[in-house]
Specification:
Blueprint lengths: L15 H17 L3 E9 L5 H9 L3 E8 L14 E5 L12 E7 L8 H11 E12 L3 H11 L17 H10 L2 E9 L3 E8 L1
Parallel strand pairs: 1-2, 1-4, 2-3, 4-5
Antiparallel strand pairs: 5-7, 6-7
C-alpha cells in the first residue's frame, strides 16, 4: 500500500470500531476467496491496495492478480506486490478478455457507479463460469448515516471528506447483482453498517 494515496483512511482510523469494521471486511473476503496457483483474481476499485496487502499477509496463492481503479495514481502501485499488475481502468468498460478471471472482488465500489448494470454486466463477462464475485456495500440506514455524521461532519456521502456519492444502498446493490445473473451463496452484515456478499456466476 502507498500511504500517500490515502484513498480509504478508515483502515487506520483512530476510532477502533471503524478500524474493526473495515478490516473485518478484508478478513471475510480472504476467507471467501478460492486460493489456487491456477486461479486469476481481479480486484475492482483497489484504491491503495489494502485488500491485496491483506491477501499477501494470508499467503493466498494466485497465478496472477490484476487490480484496477479510476484514480490516476493507481499505476504507482506497480512493483509493490509480487504477481500483481495495477491498471487505470473503469469497470464499466475494461480491456480484459471474456472469462479471464476465476474471482472478482469489488469492495464498496458498485454503490458509486450510476451505471451499475453496465458494471455488473462487465464483471459477468470477465468471470469464468463458476467464478466467484465478492462485493460489499453500505446499508445507508440511519445508523450508517449517523456514524458518517459523527466521523465526517455530514450526512451526505457526496460532500463527506475522501468520499464519493452513493447512488445505491446495499439492498439495491445485491438486488442488481442477482438481476445480472449471479447467485448469492453467502452474506454477512457488519454491525448493520455494511453488507458483504459471496456470489457465483452460474
Amino acid at each position: 500500500m502507498i500511504e500517500e494515496l490515502n484513498v480509504v483512511p478508515e483502515y487506520n482510523s483512530t476510532n477502533p470500531v471503524v478500524r474493526w469494521v473495515f478490516n473485518r471486511r478484508l478478513k471475510i473476503t480472504g476467507d471467501w476467496l478460492f486460493s489456487s496457483r491456477d486461479s486469476v483474481l481481479l480486484d475492482v476499485g483497489c484504491g491503495s491496495g489494502e485488500l491485496l496487502n491483506h491477501l499477501k499477509d494470508l499467503r493466498l496463492s494466485f497465478k496472477k492478480v490484476y487490480a484496477i481503479d479510476t484514480i490516476p495514481e493507481v499505476e504507482r502501485l506497480n512493483g509493490k506486490f509480487d504477481g500483481c499488475e495495477f491498471l487505470r481502468q473503469d469497470i464499466t468498460s475494461t480491456k480484459f478478455h471474456s472469462e479471464q478471471f476465476d474471482a472478482v472482488t469489488c469492495l464498496d465500489v458498485l454503490e458509486h457507479i450510476p451505471q451499475i448494470d453496465t458494471a455488473l454486466s462487465e464483471i459477468y463477462r470477465l468471470l469464468k463460469s463458476g467464478g466467484r464475485l465478492i462485493i460489499s456495500a453500505p446499508t445507508e440506514n440511519f445508523l450508517y448515516k449517523l456514524g458518517r455524521f459523527f466521523l465526517k461532519g455530514t450526512f451526505s456521502s457526496e460532500t463527506a471528506p475522501v468520499a464519493g456519492k452513493h447512488f445505491y444502498n446495499s439492498e439495491i446493490v445485491f438486488q442488481k447483482t442477482v438481476e445480472n445473473g449471479f447467485k448469492l451463496l453467502d452474506n454477512r452484515n457488519l454491525l448493520c453498517l455494511f453488507r458483504l456478499g459471496l456470489f457465483i456466476k452460474e
